[in-house]
Write a structure and sequence with these properties.
The structure is a single chain. The protein is globular and about 55 Å long. The longest helix has 33 residues. It is built from four helices and no strands. It has 115 residues and is mostly helical.
Length: 115
């Protein structure tokens, strides 16, 4: 049942434009990554422990998307699409980290990144 639900969710994302255009796909990954980071940082700032379940769920979603997003296309093309999608995920993650670092640098005399 877990895999079926994941595939249904991925299909719903695709129906809403994720995976169809680069801009929508990148926007989804950027907003999702920022949301996960903010949730984790908010909990740690309040003295709570890190919410590993949030990070694990997001990592599982990303992994499933890379594996199943282009399931209906020929093998060679699918592999290329999976690599492209993984590159987008990694690029968004790095840009979010850089943005957080720059924000921390502007707001503090001693640079201390929240990651």
């Amino acid at each position: 049942p877990g895999v079926e639900r994941t595939l249904q969710f991925i299909q719903l994302l695709q129906q809403n434009g994720v995976g169809k255009t680069e801009a929508e796909t990148e926007r989804f990954f950027r907003l999702s990554t920022e949301l996960v980071v903010e949730t984790v940082l908010k909990n740690t700032a309040q003295g709570k422990s890190v919410r590993h379940d949030v990070v694990d769920a997001y990592a599982s979603l990303l992994s499933s998307m890379v594996r199943h997003m282009h399931a209906g296309i020929p093998e060679g093309e699918r592999v290329a699409q999976q690599i492209s999608l993984l590159n987008k995920v990694l690029g968004v993650t790095v840009r979010c980290m850089m943005s957080d670092f720059e924000r921390a640098k502007r707001n503090s005399s001693s640079v201390q990144c929240r990651w």
